[in-house]
Amino acid sequence: MGREGTRESSRRPTLTVPLPRSPRIAGAALVAVALALAATSFGLEVARVELDANVTRLQQWFDVDREATVPTWFTAALFLGGAVAVAASNLRPELRARGWTVLAVVLVVLSLDETVSLHEEIGDQGEELFGDSGLFAAAWVVPGLVFAAVVATLSLRAVRMLPAATQRLVLAGGALFVAGAAGLEVAGIALDDTADRIDRSLPLAAVQTFEELFEMLGLIVFVCAIGSHLSRPSTEPAPAASSVSNPPSRELRDVMLPTA
After folding, report:
1. How many domains does the chain have?
2. Which of 19, 68, 88, 95 is the most exposed place for a label (fewest CB within 10 A)?
3. Helices (H), the chain
4. Tell me: the pLDDT tens digits for 195-215?
């Protein structure tokens, strides 16, 4: 009984995140949803332009380039999922770092931005100052890239605490997201020769669709990489058993027990 009590006292509870039996199943399901949303959005635009179909009502729900749509909700949910994952990482003893807290706050703010379009407000201000053509129309991209670099620097130490394979996935997800959010955004502006986004061309619609798709896929890779790691038991070594739970040593008994 004493040995069993000692073993139990030396075990420290670890934080694990319940996930499906294979994290790949969850990741594959999320990727399928992202691909379906992107295909639906572009398909509706093709039907409107090429077939002159009346799909305005459906586009109000599924257009990736509009606000308050299903793709917008899905992306905002991915941001919140990422915030939960990195906040949970900070609760693991072997991963505890301030960078996770910074990253969690940033992801919550980005989820809010996805629903209220704060970065587009910056873009509108840039258009008023510099005109609505060229790279000045993407005025938010430059401060956005600077902001991303600062966040990456602040969270780098936390990410480096992850296993090497998980680090690579996290960095790949971040790179994929930035490529869509900044790179394809600029490419879309280069194609946007009209201020009316409802009458945009199919090439522009394709670029905007891939922009949102890259953002969603990057977030999925990021969230699933961290979530998969959190689903494993903590690697922190168990602390040494307390001397109170162990039987007193022979020397201690000799001191405590009176001699005949």
Report:
1. 1
2. 68
3. 2-9, 23-50, 56-62, 70-89, 98-116, 118-130, 141-159, 164-178, 184-191, 202-230, 250-256
4. 444 455 788 888 889 989 999
